[in-house]
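Supplementary Text 2. Reproducibility record for the structural model of the 182-residue chain.

All settings were left at their defaults, and a single model was retained for analysis rather than an ensemble. We include the record here because the model underlies the residue-level annotations in Supplementary Table 4.
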Amino acid sequence: MLGQTVVSALIAGSALFADYASAKPLKSLKARDQTCYSGVYVIYARGTYEPQNYSLSDTVARAITALIPDSFAQQVQYPANTSAISFSLGQAAAIQQITDYYNACPCGKTVLMGYSQGAFVIGNAIANPNASISIPQSIGKNVVSVLQFGDPQRVLGQGDVGQGVGDTYQVCNVSSELHTIR
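Retained model, structure tokens:
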């Protein structure tokens, strides 16, 4: 049920992408002032050169939090540029944010989301076997959904997402070359 709600929010948010630049920024939350939410806590990372708090992911995050009562969304704070350290800073910040919320709210449900470089950041924060830091495995039970858009790690013809991955959705335009990724 919650997975369907997140997918519905994703679709609703996609329809709003054109209006993202005029949206008000999401309120920020200091890492040490964690509030536990009975809905979901959305942690998301923006794409390369997208402005802080005015990214495409903001629209989807707003849609999710609007559809799921007592939910909150917070953007990962990192440069999101093409510098050599941007990705590493984002990965470390995402891991810290995910871990901080779990430590403060061990029963809290989390949605992780990223676009472009942000998808790379989120993906590697949760599943990078070569990383020197990563989230503790115990946190995985609290992650109810992972949404990645335009992930630069995704390779055409790479295949599916593998075994043991619960409900997995790929949303793409049928007329797009990207649709053939399935």
